[in-house]
Design goal:
48% helix; elongated; alpha/beta; 2 domains; single chain; Trna Endonuclease, Chain: A, domain 1; 20% strand; 207 residues; two-stranded antiparallel sheet; Arc Repressor Mutant, subunit A
Length: 207
């Protein structure tokens, strides 16, 4: 059970405790309260609890209605979702692809972060491979925008008739569905393929 889980369980029985009181109860008296402070702030940002001044002038942690109903598995699911977004962010996907391309004999120039230009420009002898990359968003509408955006960016890059063009996306169900719904004729006419990268760093290419 994580510290956040233990805090929620404690507050369900003793709502309104301060960070110091939670620390004493969960970690032992005189232990630093920074871990509890950080965990409570994070739970507040997720709407699980409120941090308000009690009648005695101390700041207490009070579960919201959502916090009172929430199951511990839901907290863990949120944590898992956040970890997935972090693992499948744009730069991590670029890092995986650079290693993948290198293993296949490609030399790849990568634009990291917000650097403008082609995300990955790979060369192998006389071959050229242009790849535009998007990471995992924090919501379904954001992922739809990412998908449409990466397609548009790729089309704007298509000035080399001899190059291969691909989009690279996290290997999650939503992006797979968006790619599958793209008409086959559009894929054939443009020649664009999709590279899907999962959390373990596996790469699969779809036509």
């Amino acid at each position: 059970m994580t510290l956040k889980d233990r805090i929620i369980t404690l507050l369900k029985n003793r709502d309104g405790l301060t960070d110091r009181e939670i620390t004493d109860a969960l970690l032992g008296k005189n232990n630093p309260q920074q871990p509890v402070n950080q965990a409570c702030r994070d739970l507040e940002s997720k709407g699980v609890l409120r941090r308000v001044i009690r009648k005695d002038g101390l700041k207490g942690n009070f579960l919201t209605e959502e916090g009172k109903r929430i199951e511990l598995t839901q907290v863990n699911d949120k944590k898992s979702s956040e970890e997935t977004v972090s693992k499948l962010n744009e730069d991590n996907i670029k890092r995986v692809l650079k290693e993948y391309l290198h293993a296949k004999g490609w030399e790849a120039q990568v634009s990291w972060g917000k650097t403008p230009g082609i995300d990955i420009n790979a060369i192998r002898g006389t071959e050229r491979w242009i790849i535009e990359v998007k990471g995992l968003g924090t919501s379904n509408p954001m992922n739809v925008n990412y998908f449409l955006g990466v397609l548009a960016e790729t089309l704007q890059r298509m000035d080399d008739p001899n190059a291969k063009y691909s989009i690279a996306l996290p290997d999650v169900k939503q992006f797979r569905n968006l790619w599958n719904r793209l008409p086959l004729l559009a894929k054939k006419r443009t020649g664009i393929t999709a590279l899907f990268i999962d959390e373990q760093g596996n790469v699969s290419e779809c036509l």
